[in-house]
Amino acid sequence: MDKSFEIFDFHRIFIGDAPLAFLLEIIFRTCIMYGYTVFLLRILGKRGMGQLSVLELAIIISFGSAVGDPMIMAEVPILHGMTAITVVTVFQISLEYLINKSKKAEVIMEGAPSLVVEDGIIKWDNLVKDNMSKEDLLRSLRGKDVEHLGQIYKAFLETSGQVSVMFHPPKNIKPGLSVIPEHEIPPAAFLKKRTRVKEAGIYCCMNCGNANPFDKKEEIPACELCGEEKWLNVKF
User: Fewer CB near the last or first residue (10 Å), C or N of the chain?
Assistant: First the structure.
């Protein structure tokens, strides 16, 4: 540390050595970093955000940096940190006002819910777009007390990263792919393409959940919806 460094130099602590006009640069830097943070979070998708929206997560990250640096870095004056978090707060309030006034702005900033299961079928295009694996989806569905996909009318990956489920009424429930982890299913319950069915019944595609009835000794085809070659007996 420089020998000329003075402990409890309140001018350095609160104001710093930079000219006051530097506050304008802080405002510019903060807007750029906040906007870039939101942009990156939108690219990363919804999977890792838990129950926070993109804007809520962005403000937490921005606050963490802006508040933390003045606490531990002697060369960063408190006034600069206070300016940064004030700009973030004003920016956040302005964006929330804009979002409340414009549905288009809300979709751009926070995204829109994605349909991930429809009538028992996994919508792979949306899973890929939101960087969500099938196991992530099934894990979330198990947390919603789903036993198999045939119970589901529609399931959505919300902008918070959570999966919400709309169930079929009991009379409309149909056979569907089990959400039990694959390693917990006995190998005898699976059939692969070009093998012969040993027991007639309904089998579900292991990739998309498409359910098909197969007769005894019928040769197993690839799934007509996704091309998957592995099927699961719903009665395992």
Answer: N
Q: What is the DSSP string of 144-189?
A: TT--BGGGEEEEEE-TTS-EEEEEPPGGG-----B-S-GGGS-GGG
Give the C-alpha separation, 39 to 52, whole Å.
Answer: 15
* Residue 8 amino acid letter: F
Other beta carbons within 10 Å of 42: 15
Domains belonging to the chain, first-starting first, are 10-110 (no CATH), 114-233 (3.30.240.20)
Q: How many CA atoms lie within 13 A of 214 on its CB side?
A: 30
Look at residue 114 and tell me whether its pLDDT is greater than 80.
yes
Mean pLDDT of the region 46-61: 70
- Rounded alpha-carbon distances, angstroms, from residue 33 to 18, 20, 102: 21, 21, 24
- Higher per-residue confidence, 123 vs 24: 123
- Report how far apart, in Å, the C-alpha atoms of 207 and of each of 5, 62, 130, 135 are: 65, 39, 17, 11
pTM: 0.71
C-beta separation of 116 from 122 below 8 A: yes
Contact 231, 205 (CB under 8 A): yes
In which residue are the tokens 């045939």 written?
Answer: 150
Cα 45 to Cα 66, 95, 116, 138, distances in angstroms: 24, 20, 14, 18
